[in-house]
Amino acid sequence: MKTIRFLVLSVVAALAAHADFSYTTVSKSPAGERTSKHYIKSQKMITDDGDRVTIMDLDAQTMTTINKTQKTYSVRPFSELYSKSGAAGMNVNADIKKTGQHKNINGFDAEEMVVTMAMDNSQSKQPGAKMQMQMEMHIWFASDVPGINEAHAFYEKNADRMPWPAMAGGNTSMAEIQHKMATMHGIPVLTVMKMGGANPQQQAQMDQARARIEEMKKQGGPQAAMADQMLARMGGSSSDITSESSGFSASPVPDSVFAVPADYQKVDK
Fold first, then answer.
1. Domain count across the chain
2. Global confidence as pTM
């Protein structure tokens, strides 16, 4: 995709500056069901998880996190996100590959890709801090959803402006995979995530992992949603976590969606 000629890139960039795109994701796990809404407008993207909203401003290079429960919000520059990432001290080996499998999901032709991650901080010198964990995500991408051109234009324009290291918990290989997925001409319509321990001491390691992922969740931002899913999976059930997206639209997104309520208090994080 990065070999597209300059003229085409110019047209794509112009489109992205005015592109609107939205969709809804429903995630089901042993802990229950959670709905999140996603929006793109101009140079901003937002994820609304119900009680928490994250706004990424690519022009300002800032992330705004809104806590609806506490009626507070914080604004941090992308440059600060990496150092505060909860998983930055963990070694994560990640890989992505196409399986060649296709299937119809909600009327869309979807292609499967599998992301595998092995998380390990067994070299840690802190007592009780060592743990190993494995995760596998089966992601089904569709390239024919409504608004796909607007979404692709946005990510193509901003591929090098996103805070990929922070969004990937400080891990280089995972950041590269997220960057690659974002610039693909497709949107995940179904994701199935499986997680488990890497050795017989699974339960103890899961307890250690829970504490670290709780810290990641507290940081807010894009990694918080994944942290929610990871914590739910650690509840002990063998059920997979599924996330299914629908309601794709290129209709105009109201500016009010990106506004912080006037009565919310700004806090430092």
1. 1
2. 0.70
